[in-house]
Amino acid sequence: MCALFPASKPRRAEERARALDVPRLLPTFPLRRRVPVKPLSGEGPRARFCAWIGFFRAAVRAASSLIPSARGAPAVDMVGFAVPAEVSVLLLDIEGTTTPIAFVKDTLFSYIKDNIREYLRAHWEEEECQEDVGLLRKQAEEDAHMDGVVPIPLETRDGEEEVERIIQAVIDNVHWQMSLDRKTTALKQLQGHIWRAAYENGRLKGEFFDDVVPAVRKWREAGMKVYIYSSGSVEAQKLFFGNSTEGDICELFDGHFDTKIGPKVDSESYQRIAASIGCSTSNILFLTDVTREADAAEEVDMHVAIVVRPGNAGLTDDEKSYYRLITSFNELFLPSST
Ligand SMILES: [Mg+2]
């Protein structure tokens, strides 16, 4: 059963805490679960909210012990909420929100490791592939001071043996960079080209949680705009949605943003996104699995909800209390459907 939040969300932590009154807390807070109030560290909306919530929880526990009807009240899961009426845009993260983190960590990265040799052999004579190798060679020169770096020699002779020697160096360099989880342009560029070939020949398909595509279709039918904001490049996003287990679903999205607009943990990025869409930040609801991203968006008055999916990083009790949580896109209730 879903506990619906108030339709209009008090965005500032103090306003939200002020808006919570005891009669509403009694049926919605899990009275049977005693959550320790943690000492506060740092400042900011979440810390202030936690101070308020700790006070209210203590008050509710005390009150519930005095009110016979409240003692047996069932705990209600705090999931799902009514989307505020001012929201007309949904902004979606991908990894951990629309798609299992394992798809990126396991499927995509494993594909590179398993298929890089075949890709390099097939595309070695192409200009784009030689540019990628040149960029990796330059990066290796810059990395010369690092432990374990694998240099990529120049081709000095003709023949298959020489090509295989260079290919092996490229493979070893890529494996070394991936083992360190590096995000160099050289590495990302070659990875992007390998994934593009895999999507185009059908060996890779974008994956989503089951609720995602039906919910996005429903939102669009209700007149909402839907955008993507991911650290993967816009090109990679379009390949992902254009070659998915659900077919080409690019038409479901009004636009894409990547970190060219700014880091996902920087508030200004969310202001730029709103300006680019042509709306106010308060007209946007951002769905993500990462609380730091949610904080950045909320800082500039964007509505946020944390998406809790299998395989995502766990949340602290304070985070569970502070953020609006959903475990499925079906737990969002548009104004027209509530
Ligand atoms: Mg994510």
TrEMBL record:
It catalyses: 5-methylsulfanyl-2,3-dioxopentyl phosphate + H2O = 1,2-dihydroxy-5-(methylsulfanyl)pent-1-en-3-one + phosphate. It is found in: Cytoplasm; Nucleus. Its EC number is 3.1.3.77. Mg(2+) binds at D93, E95, D289. One of its GO terms (biological process) is L-methionine salvage from methylthioadenosine. One of its GO terms (cellular component) is cytoplasm. Transmembrane segments: none annotated. The keyword Hydrolase applies. Pathway: Amino-acid biosynthesis; L-methionine biosynthesis via salvage pathway; L-methionine from S-methyl-5-thio-alpha-D-ribose 1-phosphate: step 4/6; Amino-acid biosynthesis; L-methionine biosynthesis via salvage pathway; L-methionine from S-methyl-5-thio-alpha-D-ribose 1-phosphate: step 3/6. Its cofactor is Mg(2+). One of its GO terms (molecular function) is magnesium ion binding. Substrate binds at S230, S231, K264. InterPro entries: Enolase-ppase_E1, ENOPH1_eukaryotes, HAD-like_sf, HAD-SF_hydro_IA, HAD_sf. Signal peptide: none annotated. Keywords: Amino-acid biosynthesis, Cytoplasm, Hydrolase, Magnesium, Metal-binding, Methionine biosynthesis, Nucleus. Bifunctional enzyme that catalyzes the enolization of 2,3-diketo-5-methylthiopentyl-1-phosphate (DK-MTP-1-P) into the intermediate 2-hydroxy-3-keto-5-methylthiopentenyl-1-phosphate (HK-MTPenyl-1-P), which is then dephosphorylated to form the acireductone 1,2-dihydroxy-3-keto-5-methylthiopentene (DHK-MTPene). PANTHER family: ENOLASE-PHOSPHATASE E1. Monomer. This is Enolase-phosphatase E1. It comes from Podarcis lilfordi (Lilford's wall lizard). The lineage of its organism: Eukaryota, Metazoa, Chordata, Craniata, Vertebrata.
